[in-house]
Specification:
- InterPro entries: CPA3_Na-H_Antiporter_D (IPR050586), ND/Mrp_TM (IPR001750).
- By secondary structure, the chain is mostly helical.
- About 70% of the residues lie in helices and about 0% in strands.
- It starts with 8 loop residues before the first helix and ends in a 12-residue tail after the last helix.
């Protein structure tokens, strides 16, 4: 078996095991598989990163069909980095779900494995239509996960989640259909440069981008995210925070580099949207009443920090390399840090029965280690040392500063202001939940148990390691950016020498 034939296994394995867990009556087996399967895909992602670093991009077309016709999977260092990080989040979220007893629900494990199937496929697909298919594979189990337990509030949130994502999926498949109508192809490599300077293709791809931005929770289509994610359990929210929106980030980066050819005419629009999104995400959390609703706005706040880097790619060259590496570094930091904070708040909820800030106080004395984990996550979100957020924000500001024009000042100033808003939001949570008088209505001996705490603690230790190993992390993200920018190698791997349906109308 050749190395490229391993790519479909990333998708097939969790899908097959999800069927096994759906039929298995053994909770012990299901719990073990919910950890083992993302761990296997995690190990496979590390192998993929190392292999593609040595041998370049690899691609596999199912059934040996001709390139451009069959279902193609493609792997490079960029997709490998995203695969590794999403699997870390999935593994940790499932770990917390086991500890919190959430896997008592009969179909929790198979649903999460189907979600992992969709995420793995979306990160490895070479085709826009199959990306839509994999997004739907992600969403179908997500509808069940977000509604699980069936409380009224949770079902109302599930309805909103389903309606928004069904609308986004409809828009996405329409956009993909228009792309095929204009270009006669939906293979990403076959569409190289198709939306750069070509009106009909730009409109068609614009529909696709809007649909993906809706799924990413980007302004002005962001309000559904903080209304739905906090209404589910902490384990599910942690799972969603690191998987759903970051798959959208991955594809927006890929589309921008390959299909839009980093067309600079869109830079101003990207900057305007992302600047407003930063400000809303930074300050909107000040109005929320629960810990996880505040964290949901930090998710909204993180997306524009990542996506604004698309406007600083400068059409290619070293500037594009630096900007994309900075955006990727911030993506990894955000996935780990928000996941840690979400699971930490889940540990508090599991212990005290609530995440409402007005009902909690004095946890810094009662649960010092839990409080320290939250404080570390807050420092990382804001960009304070010694956590991954410092270098994440420093690198994106340095990338924004490189053009040395008005847009640089606007973006850097907004990053500072939005970070101040995030600081105020996190300080508000700290003041209400962790400071103050000791709670009188809970037994003095009650505190967060280690099993609840370890998943979030592990994630924050990883954030600390990312700070300590900043040089190595920058090397990893730079290699990911190099792979993303090596469009020649990507198209050669996917299309080969006998491809059909390659678009000929691009710039």
């Amino acid at each position: 078996m050749t190395a490229d034939a391993i790519l479909p296994i990333f998708v097939a394995l969790p899908l097959i095991i999800s069927a096994v867990t759906a039929l298995s009556p053994s909770k012990t087996l299901n719990d073990a598989l919910s950890i083992i399967i993302p761990a296997i895909n995690l190990a496979g992602g590390i192998w993929l990163y190392q292999y593609t670093g040595e041998h370049g991009t690899i691609s596999h077309t199912i059934g040996g069909y001709q390139a451009g016709v069959g279902i193609s999977f493609v792997g490079d260092q960029f997709s490998a980095i995203m695969l590794v990080t999403t699997m870390i989040v999935a593994l940790t979220a499932n770990w917390f779900a086991i500890v919190a007893g959430e896997t008592q629900a009969r179909y929790y494990t198979p649903l999460t494995l189907v979600l992992i199937t969709g995420v793995s496929g979306a990160l490895l697909t070479a085709d826009l239509f199959n990306f839509f298919v994999m997004i739907e594979v992600c969403l179908l189990p997500s509808y069940g996960l977000i509604a699980m337990t069936g409380t009224r509030h949770r079902l109302l949130s599930a309805r909103t989640f389903a309606l928004v994502n069904l609308a986004a999926s409809t828009l996405l498949v329409l956009g993909v259909g228009y792309v095929y109508g204009v270009a006669g192809a939906v293979n990403i490599a076959a569409l190289r440069g198709a939306a750069a300077g070509n009106g009909p293709m730009t409109v068609a791809m614009g529909i696709v981008v809007i649909a993906i931005a809706l799924k990413a929770g980007v302004f002005p289509v962001h309000t559904w995210l903080p209304r739905t994610y906090p209404s589910t359990s902490a384990a599910v929210m942690g799972l969603f925070s690191g998987l759903h929106t970051k798959v959208a980030v991955y594809m927006l980066y890929r589309i921008w580099v390959v299909i839009f050819d980093m067309d600079e005419r869109w830079n101003t629009l990207i900057i305007v949207i992302m600047v407003v999104s930063m400000l809303i995400g930074g300050f909107a959390g000040l109005a929320e009443s629960t810990i996880r609703r505040v964290l949901a706005y930090q998710m909204v706040n993180g997306m524009p920090f990542i996506l604004v880097m698309l406007a600083f790619t400068g059409g290619g060259g070293e500037q594009a390399r630096y900007a994309l590496a900075a955006g990727l570094l911030y993506t990894l930091h955000h996935m780990i840090t928000v996941g840690a904070l979400t699971l930490n708040s889940g540990a508090i909820e599991e212990t005290y029965g609530t995440g409402t800030m007005s009902k909690l106080s004095g946890l810094a004395r009662r649960d010092p280690i839990t409080s320290a984990v939250f404080a570390a996550g807050a420092f990382s979100i804001v960009g304070f040392p010694p956590f991954s957020g410092l270098f994440g924000k420093v690198t994106i500001m340095l990338a924004a500063a490189r053009p040395s024009d008005v847009t640089s000042w606007v973006v850097i100033g907004t990053i500072i202001v939005a970070s101040f808003g995030a600081l105020l939001s996190m300080m508000r949570v700290w003041r209400k939940v962790f400071w103050g008088r000791p709670m009188q209505h809970y037994p003095a001996a009650l505190n967060v148990r280690w099993p609840y705490l370890l998943p979030s603690l592990s994630m924050m230790l990883l954030s600390l390691a990312m700070f300590v190993l900043a040089g190595q992390m920058w090397g990893i993200t730079t290699s990911g950016a190099d792979a993303l920018l090596n469009v020649d190698q990507y198209t050669s791997a996917v299309l080969g020498t006998d491809a059909v349906g390659v678009y000929q109308g691009g710039r």
